[in-house]
Amino acid sequence: MIPVIEAFKEKYHLKKLVVIADAGLLSAKNIQALCEKNYEFILGARIKNETEQIKQRLLSFPKDPSEKLKDGQSSIINKGDGQKLIIGYSAQRAKNDAHNRKRGLQKLEKALASGKLTKQHINNKGYNKYLKLEGKINISIDYNKFKEDEKWDGLKGYITNTQLAKEEVIENYKQLWFIEKTFRITKTDLRIRPVFHYIKRRIQAHICIAFAACKIYKELERQLYEKKAGISPEKAINILKTIYSITITTPYSNTKYTRLLIKSQEQSDLLKLFNLL
Protein backbone atom coordinates (compact mmCIF):
# COMPACT_ATOMS: atom_id res chain seq x y z
CA MET A 1 0.00 0.00 0.00
CA ILE A 2 2.66 2.53 1.03
CA PRO A 3 4.75 2.26 -2.20
CA VAL A 4 1.61 2.86 -4.28
CA ILE A 5 0.67 5.95 -2.24
CA GLU A 6 4.20 7.35 -2.42
CA ALA A 7 4.43 6.74 -6.18
CA PHE A 8 1.09 8.52 -6.64
CA LYS A 9 2.26 11.42 -4.48
CA GLU A 10 5.52 11.77 -6.44
CA LYS A 11 3.91 11.47 -9.88
CA TYR A 12 1.40 14.24 -9.24
CA HIS A 13 3.73 16.41 -7.11
CA LEU A 14 1.42 16.41 -4.10
CA LYS A 15 2.75 18.17 -1.03
CA LYS A 16 0.06 16.79 1.22
CA LEU A 17 -1.97 13.65 0.69
CA VAL A 18 -4.86 12.38 2.81
CA VAL A 19 -5.74 8.71 2.34
CA ILE A 20 -9.50 8.13 2.19
CA ALA A 21 -10.73 4.54 2.06
CA ASP A 22 -13.64 2.36 3.12
CA ALA A 23 -13.62 -0.09 6.01
CA GLY A 24 -11.80 -2.69 3.91
CA LEU A 25 -8.55 -0.82 4.59
CA LEU A 26 -9.24 -0.64 8.31
CA SER A 27 -6.72 -2.95 9.94
CA ALA A 28 -4.25 -2.28 12.72
CA LYS A 29 -1.36 -3.07 10.36
CA ASN A 30 -2.52 -0.64 7.67
CA ILE A 31 -3.21 2.15 10.15
CA GLN A 32 0.21 1.63 11.75
CA ALA A 33 1.89 1.80 8.33
CA LEU A 34 0.13 5.08 7.53
CA CYS A 35 1.04 6.55 10.90
CA GLU A 36 4.69 5.55 10.58
CA LYS A 37 4.89 7.45 7.29
CA ASN A 38 3.02 10.43 8.82
CA TYR A 39 0.11 10.12 6.41
CA GLU A 40 -3.24 11.53 7.40
CA PHE A 41 -6.25 9.35 6.73
CA ILE A 42 -10.03 9.13 6.80
CA LEU A 43 -11.27 5.56 6.98
CA GLY A 44 -14.70 4.01 7.22
CA ALA A 45 -15.11 2.46 10.68
CA ARG A 46 -16.63 -0.88 11.63
CA ILE A 47 -18.37 0.55 14.66
CA LYS A 48 -19.85 -2.82 15.71
CA ASN A 49 -16.28 -4.15 16.06
CA GLU A 50 -15.15 -1.40 18.42
CA THR A 51 -14.37 -2.10 22.07
CA GLU A 52 -17.31 -2.64 24.42
CA GLN A 53 -16.46 0.63 26.15
CA ILE A 54 -16.68 2.60 22.91
CA LYS A 55 -19.81 0.75 21.76
CA GLN A 56 -21.58 1.49 25.04
CA ARG A 57 -20.59 5.14 24.80
CA LEU A 58 -21.61 5.18 21.16
CA LEU A 59 -25.12 3.91 21.82
CA SER A 60 -25.70 5.98 24.92
CA PHE A 61 -24.49 9.40 23.82
CA PRO A 62 -25.92 11.87 24.24
CA LYS A 63 -27.17 10.35 27.51
CA ASP A 64 -30.40 12.32 27.40
CA PRO A 65 -32.65 10.54 24.83
CA SER A 66 -34.14 13.90 23.90
CA GLU A 67 -30.68 14.95 22.67
CA LYS A 68 -30.17 11.90 20.48
CA LEU A 69 -28.35 12.61 17.23
CA LYS A 70 -30.72 14.02 14.68
CA ASP A 71 -30.54 13.78 10.91
CA GLY A 72 -27.21 15.14 9.67
CA GLN A 73 -25.68 15.53 13.15
CA SER A 74 -22.42 13.95 14.31
CA SER A 75 -20.29 13.49 17.43
CA ILE A 76 -16.64 12.72 18.19
CA ILE A 77 -15.03 10.05 20.39
CA ASN A 78 -11.29 10.34 20.97
CA LYS A 79 -9.53 6.97 20.55
CA GLY A 80 -6.06 8.13 21.58
CA ASP A 81 -2.80 8.20 19.59
CA GLY A 82 -4.12 11.22 17.73
CA GLN A 83 -7.05 9.28 16.29
CA LYS A 84 -10.71 10.07 16.68
CA LEU A 85 -13.90 8.24 15.85
CA ILE A 86 -16.58 10.41 14.26
CA ILE A 87 -20.14 9.13 14.37
CA GLY A 88 -22.72 10.55 11.99
CA TYR A 89 -26.45 9.88 11.85
CA SER A 90 -28.61 9.94 8.73
CA ALA A 91 -32.37 9.44 8.72
CA GLN A 92 -32.20 8.14 5.14
CA ARG A 93 -29.47 5.68 6.10
CA ALA A 94 -31.59 4.53 9.05
CA LYS A 95 -34.49 3.94 6.69
CA ASN A 96 -32.27 1.99 4.29
CA ASP A 97 -30.71 -0.04 7.12
CA ALA A 98 -34.14 -1.00 8.46
CA HIS A 99 -35.35 -1.92 4.96
CA ASN A 100 -32.30 -4.08 4.24
CA ARG A 101 -32.50 -5.85 7.60
CA LYS A 102 -36.17 -6.65 7.04
CA ARG A 103 -35.51 -7.88 3.51
CA GLY A 104 -32.67 -10.09 4.76
CA LEU A 105 -34.90 -11.51 7.48
CA GLN A 106 -37.69 -12.25 5.00
CA LYS A 107 -35.26 -14.18 2.78
CA LEU A 108 -34.17 -16.28 5.74
CA GLU A 109 -37.78 -16.89 6.79
CA LYS A 110 -38.67 -17.99 3.27
CA ALA A 111 -35.67 -20.32 3.04
CA LEU A 112 -36.42 -21.75 6.49
CA ALA A 113 -40.11 -22.33 5.69
CA SER A 114 -39.27 -24.06 2.39
CA GLY A 115 -36.65 -26.26 4.00
CA LYS A 116 -34.08 -25.06 1.47
CA LEU A 117 -31.44 -23.80 3.87
CA THR A 118 -28.04 -24.94 2.60
CA LYS A 119 -24.48 -24.85 3.89
CA GLN A 120 -24.03 -21.34 2.51
CA HIS A 121 -26.53 -20.06 5.09
CA ILE A 122 -24.73 -21.67 8.03
CA ASN A 123 -22.24 -18.89 8.71
CA ASN A 124 -22.18 -15.53 10.42
CA LYS A 125 -22.01 -13.40 7.29
CA GLY A 126 -24.59 -10.80 6.31
CA TYR A 127 -28.06 -11.50 7.64
CA ASN A 128 -27.29 -15.18 8.29
CA LYS A 129 -26.19 -14.03 11.74
CA TYR A 130 -29.89 -14.08 12.66
CA LEU A 131 -29.92 -17.86 12.31
CA LYS A 132 -29.81 -19.75 15.56
CA LEU A 133 -28.47 -23.31 15.66
CA GLU A 134 -29.93 -25.57 18.31
CA GLY A 135 -28.47 -29.03 18.70
CA LYS A 136 -27.25 -30.65 15.50
CA ILE A 137 -30.06 -29.93 13.07
CA ASN A 138 -32.60 -27.59 14.67
CA ILE A 139 -32.30 -24.22 12.95
CA SER A 140 -34.36 -21.19 13.92
CA ILE A 141 -34.21 -17.40 13.57
CA ASP A 142 -32.97 -15.32 16.49
CA TYR A 143 -35.51 -12.48 16.42
CA ASN A 144 -33.97 -10.91 19.53
CA LYS A 145 -30.70 -10.45 17.64
CA PHE A 146 -32.64 -8.99 14.71
CA LYS A 147 -34.35 -6.49 17.04
CA GLU A 148 -31.08 -5.72 18.80
CA ASP A 149 -29.49 -4.59 15.52
CA GLU A 150 -32.11 -1.85 15.19
CA LYS A 151 -30.17 0.40 17.53
CA TRP A 152 -27.38 0.73 14.92
CA ASP A 153 -29.69 1.96 12.17
CA GLY A 154 -28.56 5.26 10.66
CA LEU A 155 -25.15 5.33 12.37
CA LYS A 156 -21.94 5.56 10.34
CA GLY A 157 -18.42 5.77 11.74
CA TYR A 158 -15.23 7.38 10.43
CA ILE A 159 -11.73 7.05 11.90
CA THR A 160 -9.30 9.87 11.21
CA ASN A 161 -6.09 11.43 12.46
CA THR A 162 -6.63 14.71 10.58
CA GLN A 163 -7.35 18.06 12.16
CA LEU A 164 -10.33 18.59 9.89
CA ALA A 165 -13.69 19.47 11.38
CA LYS A 166 -16.05 16.50 11.68
CA GLU A 167 -18.29 17.90 8.95
CA GLU A 168 -15.29 18.11 6.58
CA VAL A 169 -14.29 14.53 7.41
CA ILE A 170 -17.75 13.21 6.57
CA GLU A 171 -18.01 15.31 3.41
CA ASN A 172 -14.59 14.14 2.15
CA TYR A 173 -15.46 10.51 2.84
CA LYS A 174 -18.65 10.88 0.81
CA GLN A 175 -16.50 11.56 -2.26
CA LEU A 176 -15.72 7.82 -2.30
CA TRP A 177 -19.23 7.34 -3.65
CA PHE A 178 -18.22 8.96 -6.94
CA ILE A 179 -15.30 6.55 -7.32
CA GLU A 180 -17.46 3.54 -6.47
CA LYS A 181 -20.09 4.75 -8.94
CA THR A 182 -17.45 4.98 -11.68
CA PHE A 183 -16.34 1.40 -10.94
CA ARG A 184 -19.98 0.31 -11.19
CA ILE A 185 -20.37 2.09 -14.51
CA THR A 186 -17.26 0.44 -15.98
CA LYS A 187 -18.48 -3.01 -14.89
CA THR A 188 -22.12 -2.64 -15.94
CA ASP A 189 -22.80 0.04 -18.56
CA LEU A 190 -19.36 -0.14 -20.19
CA ARG A 191 -18.91 -3.89 -19.63
CA ILE A 192 -15.19 -3.89 -18.96
CA ARG A 193 -15.68 -7.40 -17.57
CA PRO A 194 -15.66 -10.20 -18.52
CA VAL A 195 -12.77 -9.92 -20.95
CA PHE A 196 -13.10 -12.48 -23.74
CA HIS A 197 -9.53 -12.05 -24.98
CA TYR A 198 -6.29 -13.94 -24.45
CA ILE A 199 -3.71 -11.98 -26.46
CA LYS A 200 -2.10 -9.22 -24.41
CA ARG A 201 -2.57 -6.41 -26.96
CA ARG A 202 -6.24 -7.25 -27.35
CA ILE A 203 -6.77 -7.20 -23.60
CA GLN A 204 -5.03 -3.83 -23.44
CA ALA A 205 -7.15 -2.53 -26.33
CA HIS A 206 -10.34 -3.70 -24.62
CA ILE A 207 -9.41 -1.89 -21.39
CA CYS A 208 -8.31 1.21 -23.33
CA ILE A 209 -11.68 1.40 -25.12
CA ALA A 210 -13.55 0.96 -21.85
CA PHE A 211 -11.43 3.69 -20.22
CA ALA A 212 -12.04 6.09 -23.13
CA ALA A 213 -15.78 5.37 -22.91
CA CYS A 214 -15.67 6.06 -19.17
CA LYS A 215 -13.96 9.41 -19.80
CA ILE A 216 -16.66 10.38 -22.32
CA TYR A 217 -19.35 9.28 -19.86
CA LYS A 218 -17.88 11.42 -17.07
CA GLU A 219 -17.59 14.40 -19.44
CA LEU A 220 -21.27 13.99 -20.34
CA GLU A 221 -22.08 13.85 -16.63
CA ARG A 222 -20.09 17.07 -16.03
CA GLN A 223 -21.76 18.96 -18.85
CA LEU A 224 -25.26 17.85 -17.84
CA TYR A 225 -24.51 19.11 -14.32
CA GLU A 226 -23.15 22.46 -15.56
CA LYS A 227 -26.14 22.94 -17.86
CA LYS A 228 -28.52 22.05 -15.00
CA ALA A 229 -30.18 19.51 -17.25
CA GLY A 230 -31.83 17.67 -14.39
CA ILE A 231 -31.26 14.26 -15.99
CA SER A 232 -28.64 11.57 -15.45
CA PRO A 233 -26.09 10.48 -18.07
CA GLU A 234 -27.92 7.14 -18.29
CA LYS A 235 -31.17 8.93 -19.14
CA ALA A 236 -29.43 11.15 -21.71
CA ILE A 237 -27.81 8.14 -23.39
CA ASN A 238 -31.14 6.29 -23.51
CA ILE A 239 -32.76 9.31 -25.18
CA LEU A 240 -29.94 9.60 -27.71
CA LYS A 241 -30.38 5.93 -28.60
CA THR A 242 -33.93 6.69 -29.78
CA ILE A 243 -32.86 9.44 -32.21
CA TYR A 244 -32.40 8.33 -35.81
CA SER A 245 -31.44 10.15 -38.99
CA ILE A 246 -32.53 9.60 -42.56
CA THR A 247 -30.66 10.41 -45.76
CA ILE A 248 -32.73 11.51 -48.75
CA THR A 249 -31.69 11.77 -52.40
CA THR A 250 -34.06 13.79 -54.56
CA PRO A 251 -35.09 12.35 -57.96
CA TYR A 252 -34.06 15.58 -59.72
CA SER A 253 -30.43 15.69 -58.58
CA ASN A 254 -27.75 13.68 -56.83
CA THR A 255 -27.86 15.94 -53.78
CA LYS A 256 -28.24 14.09 -50.50
CA TYR A 257 -30.01 15.55 -47.48
CA THR A 258 -29.66 14.20 -43.94
CA ARG A 259 -32.32 14.93 -41.36
CA LEU A 260 -32.79 13.92 -37.76
CA LEU A 261 -36.06 12.25 -36.83
CA ILE A 262 -37.29 14.05 -33.72
CA LYS A 263 -40.36 12.32 -32.34
CA SER A 264 -40.56 13.52 -28.74
CA GLN A 265 -40.11 16.65 -26.65
CA GLU A 266 -37.33 15.09 -24.55
CA GLN A 267 -35.33 14.35 -27.71
CA SER A 268 -35.74 17.95 -28.81
CA ASP A 269 -34.82 19.33 -25.37
CA LEU A 270 -31.65 17.25 -25.17
CA LEU A 271 -30.43 18.30 -28.61
CA LYS A 272 -31.17 21.97 -27.87
CA LEU A 273 -29.21 21.65 -24.64
CA PHE A 274 -26.07 20.91 -26.67
CA ASN A 275 -26.97 23.31 -29.52
CA LEU A 276 -27.53 20.43 -31.91
CA LEU A 277 -30.97 21.54 -33.02
Please outline the helices and strands.
Elements lengths: L1 H10 L6 E4 L6 H9 L3 E6 L6 H9 L13 E7 L2 E7 L1 H24 L16 E4 L3 E4 L1 H6 L6 E6 L5 H9 L1 H12 L12 H27 L6 H8 L3 E6 L6 E6 L3 H9 L4
Parallel strand pairs: 1-2
Antiparallel strand pairs: 2-7, 3-4, 4-7, 5-6, 8-9
Structure characteristics:
277 residues; alpha+beta; 4 domains; 5-stranded mixed sheet; two-stranded antiparallel ribbon; 9 strands
Q: What number is the mean pLDDT?
A: 86
Which strands sit side by side, in order, in the main sheet?
Answer: 1-2-7-4-3
What class, by secondary structure content? alpha+beta
Query: How many helix segments?
Result: 10
Explain what the structure shows.
The protein is of the alpha+beta class. The protein folds into 4 domains: 2-90 and 154-174, no CATH class; 93-150, no CATH class; 184-233, no CATH class; 242-273, no CATH class. The chain contains 10 helices and 9 strands. The chain has helices at 2-11, 28-36, 52-60, 91-114, 143-148, 166-174, 176-187, 200-226, 233-240, 265-273, and strands at 18-21, 40-45, 74-80, 83-89, 131-134, 138-141, 155-160, 244-249, 256-261. The chain is extended, with a radius of gyration of 26 Å. The mean pLDDT is 86.
Entry summary:
Helices cover about 45% and strands about 20% of the residues. With about 280 residues, the chain is α+β, with helices and mostly antiparallel strands.
